[in-house]
Amino acid sequence: RYTMAAFGTDWKSKVGPWLELLEELKALSLDNALSLPQICVAGDQSSGKSSVLEALSGIPFPRGYGLVTRCPVRLVMRSAPEWSCSVSTTSSTQTITPKSPDDLTAIILRLTETLTQGQKELSSDAIIIRLSSPESPDLTVIDLPGIVRTETSERGVRVIKHINNLINHYLEEDRTIILAIIPANQDIATIDILERARIVDPAGERTIGVLTKPDLIGPGNEQEVVAVLRNIRKPLKLGFVMVKNRSQAQVEEGLSCQTVADDEETFFQNHPTFSCLDQRLLGSRNLASSLARLLIQRIKQQTAPIKRQLEGMLSSIRADLRAMSSCGSASTAGQRQRLLVTLTQEFVRHLNDCVRGEYRDRIIVCNPNLRLYTRALIIFHELQSKVAATAPPFRIKNFTSKLACQMEALRGRELPGFMSAQSFYMFIQEFINAWDPPARMAAAQMRALTNEVVRDLFENIAASYPVLRESFQAVASSILETSEHEALRLLEGLVLREKDPFTINEFLQAHINKLRYDRFESSVDAAFKGSILGDCSGQSGSWQATKSHIGASLRSWYLSAHGVSSSANAEDMSAILEAYWTLASKRYVDNVCMCLDDRILGTLCGKLQETCYQFVHDEAKLRAFFTEDRAMAIQRSRLEKTLDKLSKANASMNNIQAERRPSRRSVQPPLTPSGLKFKLSVAVESQGLGLQLADEEGRVGTFAAYLIRTKLAAGGYQGVSWSKSGATGRNPGRRYSN
Q1: Is the whole model's pTM more than 0.90, yes or no?
Q2: Which helix (H) or strand (E) element contains residue 4?
Q3: Are 62 and 105 in contact (CB under 8 A)?
């Protein structure tokens, strides 16, 4: 066997913090919420997956035919002076402590049966093996069930589908390193795991191939395997490594891991073809070294993106908790009274902003459905459209003809050429009757909208108190019902007023004149269009004929529009009705909107505050009001636990120290204000470096170094600036630069 000393004396100090960070995030159950870097072992059934893990860890994984691995197995390996191990599952907090590696096989089989409930099924829950030993590499890998394509008595279509879904779930994570296990005695073009990896990792940036069973390669096929190992046959950016695992005969003989490792090394050294290859491509030791370095590199690369994602989740959780937080304690009668007053004032203040259309507060900005006046304007515009849709077809000939008949039927003692004012009153009253239903509907819509906003607003302000919320809603509903009745009474008065025509607005006279002029202009256009003047042939007559035609057409129109006849009176009445209807309908819509605004919206806040203050002296109601919703309490507890996990994870990521390298020449910066000298040697990469330093007296200064194009040179501070802030001493806050 090999030890971690083979990776370098300072390897553990370098990789330990990063691997522990990963385990801390997983221990906090954040591997589902965050896509964490991990190595997944995947391949065909019986391709040697478990044997590779066995070679890496020294653990005798279960062997056999058929579907042996039926749940994910996460193997957490750490180098330690003594052998120790613990086994658990993601579905239970119980931990099993094996006494020796030989006990692990039975434990893995027993836990597999427990997770799969004794059936020939699969489980998404994982077995977690934490192993520490002098021979273990600092590495974490996950063994997945083998890929199955053929149905058997123990694996039907459903089991195969479950296997595929489970494997794809791990492979699709963009921070997962895919350890593709490939039997060396098979054609690489037919390997299923490589095709799956290509789909989720088209660039091949997170896939490393492991060739197994080199002792089963057929004679003459060695060069094909060499082409694969040299990354020629099926190129992967992470390349390939070949290992030789224990054979079944060696398992039955009970050979030790050290003996098997020696046998593997001897096999590659004595092989006529493979002994000529770069030895870094061969052996379990090189595989472990490559995987450890690859995992650490991936963790370092992904730390910043994971931290950004983590901070985004923290911000979201904090916002959710703020939305659910109450405004104070409610354990005593006095506290409940003060809390009721506080919540009432807060609610009325926000509601008043909603009513007035002043959207400055965060709650209203973040919840567009609370913008009451904006939504009320939609109702007002709908009312305007509905009233406009009731307009009679004043300019249609059939309307004028029907109007003439009705005027004749109503004629009394009026002399010829005179119109009856009574006819005008009767017609306009009939038209105005159509305005009432849209106005009543607008009042009902306004009441429903205000009720909805009141409910949603109080859910945002006091979501934890459902009884108080329902009481406020009941009070608001009662006030709005009364306000709607008052508004409807006023709307009835508006309709009655409009049925008694009146105006001193000059718009009526101007509009009547405009309509008459428009009709005259239309008749002139019609006369000219029907004249022979428009004929460009020049053979249809003379100017005298054209003049005669136009004159006759205009005389005919004048007699029909202004002559003493029922049709002429109807034309004039139609213009007067249209002008007054236009004026009155606009006035009516404005008055209805102002009425609804005043009676339904305008009086709500004051009445609601006055009524709710009456509950202050009702202790029984106050107790009921501030009984917290159980579901809300459970949800807040869950959010608080999640916040605690995320905060711990964020703290763990903040504790990761930047890698330091000794420099050839030490650089001595200027004296600090207190006279303290210190030496700082850092390697700064392209994105810069942030450090926090403490002096001997416990005073802390934060230094920031920014690299500008050039790295930190050995002889000075070329391209680097630094500053000191937040320090204590004689001159706190003074900035220094070089």
Answers
A1: no
A2: none
A3: yes
